[in-house]
Amino acid sequence: MNQHDTSDQRASDQRASDQRASGQAESDLRARIAATLETARRRTLGLTDCLDEDGLKAQHSPLMSPLVWDLAHIGNQEELWLVRDAGGRPAIRPDLDPLYDAFQHPRADRPALPLLAPEPARAYLRQVRAQALDVLDGADLDPDGPPLLAGGFVFGMIAQHEQQHDETMLATHQLRQGPAVLDAPAPPPAPADAAALPAEVLIPAGPFTMGTSTEPWALDNERPAHTVDLPGYWLDSAPVTNAAYQEFIADGGYTDPRWWTPAGLRHREQAGLTAPLFWQRDGDTWLRRRFGRTEPVPADEPVVHVCWYEADAYARWAGRRLPTEAEWEKAARLDPATGRSRRYPWGDQDPTADHANLGQRHLQPAPAGSYPRGSAPSGARQLIGDVWEWTASDFEPYPGFTAFPYKEYSEVFFGPDYKVLRGGSFAVDPVACRGTFRNWDYPIRRQIFSGFRTARDADAPHTDAVELG
Ligand code: AVJ
Ligand code: FE
Fold this sequence. Notes:
Elements: H1 3-48, H2 53-57, H3 67-86, H4 118-138, H5 153-175, E1 200-203, E2 206-210, E3 226-230, E4 233-236, H6 242-250, H7 262-271, E5 279-282, E6 285-290, E7 293-296, H8 308-317, H9 325-333, E8 334-335, E9 340-341, E10 388-395, E11 415-422, E12 438-441, E13 450-451, E14 455-457
Parallel strand pairs: 10-13
Antiparallel strand pairs: 1-4, 2-3, 4-14, 5-6, 6-7, 8-9, 10-11, 11-12
């Protein structure tokens, strides 16, 4: 064999080994997708098997769909994207498309639609899933292939869609009257060092990379990566607690017009806001209803079920402000040692139970100061999990945004009507939560698992920061 043959042989060996490696990577990815879809389905069934037919068909709040609508809508989106679009297969139930199109019927109107009853809806989900898994088996997931399938994007999108509805369904459970049907262990108590955490951490001025162009399952609104330069700012080490929020209430915060924007004031009066949703006064103490049980409001837990106007008013009362979305993301992702933006506050590894309170493992936030292993380099904790954090920012596209794969996922919501929430709650699965993930809602909404933390400019005078306690 001459020199030439040998190098040809080496090149061909290398190609064969690359193919084996990429074949292995692709079968690992296929297995991960199947497991991710299965996790979502187990949660969907867990949230719906626990209620009877009437409980699933009822509208528990005009803000929410009946749970049977979410159920079949999950199946319909999976049919549209995985069976028809990715699989190129014929429609299974085209007659269902208009019923489960979120844009054709507002939530309040959905109970009046001729919806599938629970059992047929479950059968439809099984039928769609069997075909979706069959499509997955034959799909070319090459990261350099067509964008819908590249790296399994559309499968990831549908798993995230189902998990987002699982969070919405959990919010419906929280609004539902009647005896408790869900149960989960309480999160662990705060770690010993939580009480000694500084109230706020400094994020020095400078640029960072916001958004992503490389995360394979990132949705269109998280793209593309771009540089944002920020002045220095201080950010609360942990989300604002119930204890701190009670001080705002006790100080007359709800009725003091100094703390509210004109729109906030109007909404506060119209809606009669006096405390977070699900709270009630009992003599000198506050109680809350949580998934059908009434309990004292835990002092050290992040406040949840507040609207943007309440968060904004609290921040002004505290002599502070809500962080912008860019400030939130810089604190959550920038590694100052390398200048690189990471996937999560702790690094690039997927979240474990030690990093964050995610995935409906617990049906409440963990005490402020929890999850030291999930800390950001700045020392800020619980940026991921526990409560969605309201930011000061409107939901706007990043420079260079392109709608993908459909305008109705993000683009139609851009503009000043919606505020951005970051970081995910105890109710969202890790697949639909990361340092770049953007959620949005109207500033009046508070049935979602929403809390907040506050910030101030680095050059602003220091006011009495509220102690974590
Ligand atoms: C991203 C949570 C605002 O629930 O309206 C579900 C997610 N999009 N089905 C929503 C979504 C389509 C969306 N949020
Ligand atoms: Fe949906």
